[in-house]
Amino acid sequence: MSSWPRVVLLGDSITQYSLQPNGWGTYVAQQVQRKCDLINRGFSGYNTDNIVQFLSKLVDAKLVQNVAFVTIFLGANDSVLPGSYSNQHVPVDRFEANLFKIVEHFKSLGVSSDKIILIAPPPVEAELRAKHMMEKGNGSDCDRSNETSVEYAKACVKVANSKKCRVIDLFTLMINKHLPTYLHDGLHFSDEGNSLLASELSTHVEELTKELDMNLPDWKDLCGVE
After folding, report:
1. Alpha helices in 17-115 (DSSP H)
2. Which one of the listed residues 13, 84, 145, 190 is annotated catalytic?
3. 10 Å Cβ neighbour count for 193?
4. pLDDT digits over 34-81, tens only?
5. 23 contacts 71 by C-beta, under 8 angstroms
6. CB atoms < 10 A from the CB of 91, how many?
7. 56 counts as catalytic
8. What burial class does residue 161 get, using C-beta atoms within 10 Å of its C-beta: 0-12 exposed, 13-18 middle, 19+ buried?
9. In what order do the strands lie in the sheet with 37-42?
10. Are 75 and 152 in contact (CB under 8 A)?
11. Catalytic residue among 145, 188, 191, 195, which?
12. 78 is an active site residue
């Protein structure tokens, strides 16, 4: 059973929380049930500098020895405005270089480009985000802007295209929607936001796992039920 195909989700809090009720990761897990084991490598608050720092520990050859696909979903923290209380900001050129390193790390371990799905960071709903920050005692100004976030989304798409990976441009998909419906605190997904990403992922998941067999016989076959 340890050699069953695996799905690896790598990212920040939006990935870490994806296995909470109605999270986008739960939709993925449901779609690959009895075909793959799903591994969540989401780390709240992490930017690409942090991921690169621990990359060899987070993702090794054993983890991806029989991988069906991986998702890389980063940038929401890199795009924090410079001077923010959290000190998470990573300049967009370094963010792009870090994404290159992460993709290359997976490829060096035998994961083909077609099995790598990059997800661009989403927009921010500034009013909700500012309200959330004030409630947490972190000031009253939003620490992100869509004028900045869009540049990180473009960098993500650029890396995906240059490395011939799959990509979901979540920023473009969401920016013209009513963002409070999709982002419960201005940054993290509501049920609707999770459902939107899951829907965008579903076609990729189907393509990458449709040839995989269900693991172990059906119970009806074991029990002789016609």
Report:
1. 24-31, 48-53, 55-58, 92-108
2. 13
3. 23
4. 999 999 999 999 999 999 999 999 999 999 999 999 999 999 999 988
5. no
6. 10
7. no
8. exposed
9. 37-42, 6-11, 67-73, 116-119, 166-168
10. yes
11. 188
12. no
